[in-house]
Specification:
single chain
Length: 372
């Protein structure tokens, strides 16, 4: 339990630092501390509950062992309390075991969400907008704010690309499972013979870059200003405030970001550079992961962005997540499209925790075998 004690001590340190005027004066440090406080609070709350339950259990056992206690009703109540406390302590231990599993350091970050139409032409563009509306509803239910930064919309109401930022507590944790290829099966509105078509859209979820994580050399960035065409169905901006940021233009490393949401050119420039930095950080992370996979000489399928992760079957009103098994695999499509992604996300998180626990138990068994 040394790791648990370390985290409880860290929580106390964070609480003390939050009361330090110097931390309050440093906005970035204060944000980091409050984020860490939120991350550790569930674990510390469980530790405190365990301590109280252990004290109550000790008291109930002493009461049962008291030779002067002859009231059968009181004895029965004490026995029930012992049983209940033992059961709760077992639950707490299991919950603590999960909370002590390795966590994603990006979980607490804001994200850049990118949706792009894949195979399927105009229908793929319509699916992009359906996904966007789904994420808007899902985010609203979690008190997250989704703000469209750029959208290449079509005349039919679809979009070949949408870029949005999602801000709020643990935005990345809520959306990280969405990375990959989403497939839709349905009869398009333009289909006269009622045939079911299959289209795809890709979703990228980029965590915000930490200060200093990426050194963006502004001399390698070309900034263009032009008149906004509107984004995500919002009002058209009639001033020359839209910003295009191009990193290493004309080279294989080129990255282009457009931001035309804000009325202010300065604000759009700031957002464009923020998205650009997030993309650069993601590129570096992907390169590191690729190197690690090569060194391990194995492929981790669940980490491959090009992998089909989910199918939305409209005729059967079913969403199938291909990373899950059994009853967790299928979900009602109408509920999911209305923003009810939480059951899918919970199932994915649970499956990941089970894999982590299994891996830890196998490592422990190997260590014991080696020691023997």
């Amino acid at each position: 339990m040394s790791r648990l004690n370390e985290l409880v001590s860290e929580f106390g340190l964070v609480e003390r630092r939050l009361g330090d005027p110097q931390a309050l004066a440093d906005g970035r440090e204060y944000a980091r501390l409050t984020r860490r406080h939120r991350e550790l609070l569930p674990l510390v709350t469980l530790v405190r509950e365990r301590e109280q339950a252990e004290a109550d259990l000790s008291g109930a056992r002493e009461l049962l062992q008291d030779p002067d206690m002859r009231d059968p009703d009181m004895k029965e109540l004490a026995q029930l309390e012992v049983g209940g406390l033992q059961a709760r302590l077992a639950e707490i231990e299991a919950e603590l075991e999960v909370l002590l599993l390795p966590t994603d350091p990006d979980d607490g970050k804001d994200v850049i969400l990118e949706l792009r139409a894949g195979a399927g032409g105009a229908e793929a563009g319509l699916f992009v907008m359906d996904l966007l509306r789904m994420y808007e509803r899902y985010a609203a239910g979690l008190n997250l704010k989704l703000n469209v930064l750029d959208a290449a919309e079509s005349d039919l109401g679809g979009a070949s690309k949408v870029v949005a930022e999602v801000t709020g507590d643990f935005a990345f944790r809520a959306l990280k499972w969405e990375r990959g290829v989403h497939r839709v099966q349905r009869v398009p509105a333009t289909e006269s013979q009622g045939r079911i078509h299959t289209s795809t859209a890709t979703v990228a979820v980029l965590p915000e870059a930490e200060p200093g994580e990426v050194n963006l050399d502004l001399s390698e960035v070309r900034i263009d200003v032009f008149r906004s065409q509107g984004a995500g169905g919002q009002g058209v901006n009639t001033t020359d405030s839209a910003v295009r940021a191009v990193y290493r233009a004309g080279t294989p490393d080129e990255i282009m970001v457009i931001c035309q949401d804000g009325r202010s050119q300065i604000k759009n420039r700031e957002k464009a550079l923020q998205v650009l930095t997030a993309r650069l950080a993601e590129r570096e992370r992907a390169a590191r992961e690729a190197q690690e996979r090569q060194e391990r000489a194995s492929q981790v399928g669940s980490g491959d962005r090009s992998e089909k992760i989910r199918t939305y079957n409209y005729p059967q009103n079913r969403v199938t997540d291909h990373r899950l098994e059994g009853e967790d695999k299928n979900h009602p499509l109408d509920a999911v499209m209305a923003g009810g992604l939480a059951p899918v996300v919970s199932a994915l998180a649970r499956a990941q925790r089970e894999e982590q626990l299994l891996a830890m138990s196998q490592e422990g068994a190997e260590d014991q075998h080696g020691a023997a």
